[in-house]
Amino acid sequence: xxxxxxxxxxxxxxxxxxxxxxxxxxxxxxxxxxxxxxxxxxxxxxxxxxxxxxxxxxxxxxxxxxxxxxxxxxxxxxxxxxxxxxxxxxxxxxxxxxxxxxxxxxxxxxxxxxxxxxxxxxxxxxxxxxxxxxxxxxxxxxxxxxxxxxxxxxxxxxxxxxxx
Length: 164
What we know:
Helix content: 25-40%
Radius of gyration: 28 Å
Shape: rod-shaped
Strand content: 35-45%
Largest sheet: 5 strands, antiparallel
């Protein structure tokens, strides 16, 4: 049989357990609602479409900026390459496409080691969705430096998408 002090102790313990369980449920529900609200919001998107002409042994760089505070940043790229040596007979032709952040782009330009977020390899077309590591300036490079005689014509669609 329990005395009065033991009964009070058990009652306080039971109330504390119930309070902790209720607080835990409220915290879990809060995180579910916040995550749902964040994930269900519409992302900000920017589209960059165009055509660029690249001389033999040259490259073209485009830059794109993901603003401070951007989260879940992705870059969708879709391009097609045509080539010709005489501006008459255009056919599918290869090119390299690289995507890198500002620091790696500067290193790459001066011949130092650089990390590519994306490297298409030598291709005549590509479609890819690339996750970017965070906010900042990124460079998309269409590289024709390996070709000494072929002019390249690159049609592209680039879409930057992120949440704030």
